[in-house]
Write a structure and sequence with these properties.
α7 packs parallel to α8. By secondary structure, this protein is α/β, with parallel strands linked by helices. Helix content is 47%, strand content 20%. A nine-stranded mixed beta sheet has the order 5-1-10-11-12-13-14-16-15, sandwiched between helices. The chain has a five-stranded mixed beta sheet with strand order 3-9-8-2-4. A two-stranded parallel ribbon has the order 6-7.
């Protein structure tokens, strides 16, 4: 049986601003004197360090469009893609042959900018439970050079939660209706939560989201998945509240920077990644599984899934994400299998796996610990969407393997 997966909450229009070389990005950042100058320079320094990042720029749509025009005049290539953590996961789930139901915001005004291939995928996804906006249309402006990571300026036309608040209150009932229609759900992926709040996550926002997740639990026994995106971008109080929201899910996905930030919130200052992951599980409301993903290796600490299930999920995730990086496209299963057969494992990833397992073994405090190297890239197009593709492949494989 196909895994039945509901995914939300956001889709966006991605505006890709790609400079020919990093030096061109540097020159542009040095010359640009608009209202987003500090954000542009922070983005430059981030990609120079081979990292990615995201910053809200709510209220700056006009300046962001001017930035795009100036960048194009300076030689940057401008392209438009399907954006948003949830929508990119949904396309990946669909291509992996899951019954995919989108539970979030969609913007028909953006569809004309998507490729025919993406529009066909969206047509195969169940969209009847989504929130359809005709006027509201958030956009992400993605800064990168042809051989770098990316930095995202996220413009949501104000705090997106204000537009979605009625829908979020109704989401548990929507999930209940979906579960009844499909004869149950295997997983629900609610990702990209950080973009809902703009520059401020209030106490009321936090209560709303936690109450929503608690009510969804009453509606279904599906595995609840989220990612820790944006956990350091909302100030001290916002970060604490965002961690509280993440902690009520079942499975949490995070990268190295997000693991460091989340572990600070629970008072863990140990040097080992596994110690940090373990502390997150101990201090959370419901988490059973923490998944760390990096360019070189992945690691999962779980009290729910078996080692063999986690090993397979990490391999599929690494291959799916690399396919997106190398081609810029969303993978079908055959594409993932091709990467598994043709690519070498990362040397740094193999060393990291050996280091962690020598210190921690294959279990840590009664939980399964699985560490696996990623694959060595042979070409590069862009990192945009690679994390979302990886997450979808990871969750899809876990659900499929555990049935």
């Amino acid at each position: 049986m196909k895994p039945r997966i509901a995914v939300g909450l956001e889709s966006t229009l991605d505006t890709l601003i790609t400079f020919p070389e990093l030096g061109d990005f540097e020159n542009f950042a040095g010359d640009y004197e608009g209202d987003l100058a500090s954000e542009i320079r922070e983005g430059l320094e981030t990609v120079k360090s081979n990292s990615g990042g995201e910053m809200p720029i709510d209220g700056n749509r006009e300046e962001a469009n001017r930035l795009r025009e100036l960048a194009e005049e300076a030689g940057a290539d401008i392209d438009y893609r399907l954006g948003g953590n949830a929508s990119q996961e949904a396309v990946t789930f669909e291509r992996l042959n899951a019954q995919t139901i989108f539970t979030g915001s969609i913007f028909p005004g953006s569809f004309s900018k998507y490729s025919d291939e993406i529009r066909k995928s969206l047509e195969r996804i169940d969209m009847k439970f989504a929130k359809n906006f005709e006027e509201y249309n958030p956009t992400s402006y993605i800064l990168q050079a042809s051989d770098t990571n990316r930095y995202i300026l996220s413009e949501g036309e104000g705090r997106r939660i204000e537009q979605l608040r009625p829908y979020l209150k109704d989401l548990p009932d929507i999930i209940r209706e979906i579960a009844e229609l499909y004869g149950g759900l295997d997983a629900i992926s609610i990702v990209g939560l950080h973009v809902l709040f703009g520059n401020q996550l209030t106490r009321g926002d936090c209560r709303l989201l936690i109450r929503m997740i608690e009510e969804i639990r009453k509606a279904t026994d599906a595995t609840l998945f989220t990612d820790a995106g944006g956990i350091a971008g909302l100030g001290e109080e916002g970060t604490k509240r965002l961690w509280k929201i993440y902690s009520v899910f079942d499975v949490l996905s995070l990268n190295e920077d997000e693991l460091f930030q989340a572990s600070k919130e629970v008072g863990e200052d140990g040097s080992m990644e596994v110690e940090k992951m373990d502390k997150l599980l101990e201090e959370s409301e419901n988490l059973s599984t923490v998944w760390l993903h990096t360019p070189n290796y992945q690691a999962t600490l779980s009290g729910e899934f078996s080692s063999s299930e986690l090993e397979k999920a990490q391999k599929m995730s690494a291959a799916a994400g690399l396919y997106k990086v190398e081609t810029g496209k969303f993978p079908f299963r055959k594409d993932i299998i091709s990467v598994l057969k043709t690519h070498d494992l990362s040397t740094g990833g193999k060393e990291k796996r050996r280091e962690i397992l020598e210190k921690c073994g294959k279990e840590w405090k009664g939980r399964n610990l699985v560490v696996s190297p990623c694959f060595q890239a042979e070409s590069f197009v862009s990192t945009v969407g690679a994390g979302d593709v990886s997450s979808a492949a990871y969750l899809h494989t876990l659900i499929e393997a555990s049935e």
